[in-house]
Amino acid sequence: MDCRRSRTTDPEKWIATCPEGSKAVCEELRELIFRWEPDLKESINSNMLCYSLKKRVCGISGFKDHAQLTFYRGSDLPDPMRLFNHGLENASIHSIDLPHGLEGLNQRALRKLLHAAVLLDAEPSQRKPPAPPREEWPMPEVLAARLKKNKAAAAFYDQLKPTYQREYKVWVGTAKQPETIAKRLDETLRALAAGKKWAQRKEAC
């Protein structure tokens, strides 16, 4: 999420001034949201194009090399197609990074996700049904290989509770680009060897 001061309060100007690497995708996302959920109100907040009813439902961010669609109550939404690929360690906000635009994105699943978010916002007092047990996040092979070579990091990782282990697995496992994977692995091993949980990892750098 882009937390810089908004460059404009006008959605049209916001789209017009998006970085070239994400402008077209932001325009497409905006059109889909208007088509699928026309009652949502559009505004600018924290340099994001936001859509609200009672509260903010979702928001679009435009970065230099990709667009991002954020759901403010993402952790409460069903996501059987696993569209969420960013911020999964967060307690509430989850996002969909779109480095390749909408190519390959299951738009039918996205529409269902957006509709579920709108229903959740419309009925905030509705009791949430008991969540099914969260599926265990698979151990990334690259992380497992590095842990075998670093006894201090592996020892601390093994003593972490599953919740804290998951944070590291998600963070490494959701990286796509080789340079991002390498960077997160290095940071992970330094943090674990220093006895730091994921939220404290910056302290070890």
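That was protein one. Protein two is written in the same sequence-then-structure order:
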Amino acid sequence: MAELAPMTPVGGALTPVERSSVVSVVAQRLLDHLTGGNFAPGTRLPPERQLAEALGVGRSTLREAMAALGVLGLVDVRPGSGSYLTADSSELLSRAIEWSLTLRQPRTRDLIELREFLEVMTAQLAAARADDDDIGALERHVEAMRQAGDDVDAFVAADLAFHFEAARIAGNTVLQDILSSIRSLLQVWFDRTLRVPGTIGATLAEHEAVFDAIRARSPEAAQRRMQELMDAADVRLTATVGSVDESSGPDPDDSD
């Protein structure tokens, strides 16, 4: 398969993203690059490190952006092989619009509502099905959240890992796939929310409560604790979405 040419699409080269943690900005830059270059399906994208350097972001941020593009069917991320374009430029243009709308009201709120229902179900199933090894794996993610301190990127990674682990323990592959897609699309808002002072401490305590319930093998308690976590997270997330929408207005430079 043909490799992507140097990062010089129509209209100029990719430039660094000023707010490196904003996953949607990174995804939009990649979309602009791909739609402007008339690349063929199957084109292999440059290595992760090269893309991250070109955009001026960390590799973890780039991975989240690539995962979101994968959810939309634009990019095929193949572990150990690389990332490949899955659609032609005309399809990418319509998908770019879909990406933009996905992170706005009211669809974002619809995703938040669906995620809440699925996460509560996941916790309940995990508590009923977890073995000792599962509990140990889940505890490692909680400890990683504690060790992250005020490092938002590290905390977000551990937070996501905790939820992915719980979904794995729940043992329902369809549930895992749906949750993975929703989390990828909402990732930019998780990142924003956790940068609000005091949020990390409260979020850690909520996850510890969920873990304790799963460790106790109590589906009822796990369901209740996850519902509490989701209620608190949804209040924060909805407030963040609303404040961004109200402040962004018609600014053409607002790529979130």
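The chain is about 70% helix and 5% strand. Keep this in mind for the problem set.
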